[in-house]
């Protein structure tokens, strides 16, 4: 009888520990998703202020992505120029978040209004070890 009580007590403690770990994991994931959305929102608002220029990416993009778009110069933004100047951005939503061993990738969708209509900005982001999430790719969905 005592052995069963000890086993049940250990199982109860194990259940509490599992629930505690699951709660912490969910809380951490929620915090990261909030940080991703905040980074995407900051970037989309920067486009409204700066337009399709390298300035909109300054401090918000990964070094590799900045080098890529800097090499292309104005041609990097030529395909987006047909939309016209960005005029307004709505809050971004997280579409995908993947974190493995502290390195994360994410994709956020940011509805925007441009001079020539509306489109959704698809922002790829990269973050490592709890650091700042930065833009690592960009596309437009009409």
Protein model, in words:
The protein is α+β, with helices and mostly antiparallel strands and 142 residues long. The protein is 46% helix and 31% strand. It is built from 3 helices and 5 strands, in the order H-H-H-E-E-E-E-E.
Please summarize what this structure is.
The chain is 46% helix and 31% strand. It is of the alpha+beta class and 142 residues long.
Task: Measure the end-to-end span.
Answer: 69 Å
| Level-2 CATH architecture | Roll
Count of DSSP-assigned helices: 3
Helix content: 40-55%
Question: Which whole number gives the mean pLDDT?
Answer: 81
- Structural class, from secondary structure content? alpha+beta
* Strand/helix succession: HHHEEEEE
Radius of gyration, in angstroms, nearest whole number: 21 Å
Poorly predicted regions: none
CATH topology: Nuclear Transport Factor 2, Chain: A
Largest sheet geometry: 5 strands, antiparallel
Shape: elongated
Q: Class, according to the CATH hierarchy?
A: Alpha Beta
| Overall tally of domains | 1
